[in-house]
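Can anyone check this?
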Amino acid sequence: MVEEVVLNTEVEKRYAPPAMPTGEVAVEVDPELEAELSRIPDKLAFKIGEVADLLDVKPYVLRYWETEFDILKPKKSKHNQRMYEHRDVENLLLIRKLLYRDRFSIEGARAALKKLRKDNTRVKQIKTINDHIEEAKDRVMDLIDDIAQIRLIVK
């Protein structure tokens, strides 16, 4: 029985990934942006005027940003009006923050969004890898338990 505990501890030390996150990734959030995001009304779609009022910019600015940022793809209604989804409004708030508060150029904001997307993809991959490692660890621990039981039977 004592061997089993020692064996499990050795396996845990040997197979536990020291640098891997355990599911939660710490991300620093701009409190002002977070407050703005929380003020977005809970609607399925927004017209360009509503979004312009929400962001305190003119509608032509939103149309210009659509040409400069590929993440902005509002759908068109049957009357050919731009209809922004909640995700689009969030992206627009982020773009406005990058351009107006952080003083990025259009090119710089585009690069920052690209890096953010890449980092987000990497975080998702790390979480997936972590899940696989946890699953493998569980299998190894089950195998060790089975071996310990076989040892007890054989003795």
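Reply from J.R.: I decoded it. Confidence is low (pLDDT under 50) at residues 1-27.
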